[in-house]
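Per-record layout

source: Oceanicoccus sagamiensis
name: DUF2970 domain-containing protein
length: 79
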Amino acid sequence: MGDKKPRYFERPDDDQEPLGFWQTLMIVMSSHLGVRPRDKRHEDFRRANGLHVFVAGVVYFVVLLVLLVVFVNWVSRVD
């Protein structure tokens, strides 16, 4: 039974500092692209504040949605 389960949404260890909002936002953006290694992802979930992850996800979704609407309007404009 040497396998340790990932400790999602638990407080970080005493020697680790929790992630700030901007670090969390960068984690959300990089996870969308799929460029985070598994070990880093487990560490990110353990150190990140759940509220920051939620807010960063909403902000990222709104920005992506606005950019998509602007792009579609730009492509479909009639001269």
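summary: The CA atoms of residues 24 and 75 lie 32 Å apart. The mean pLDDT is 78.
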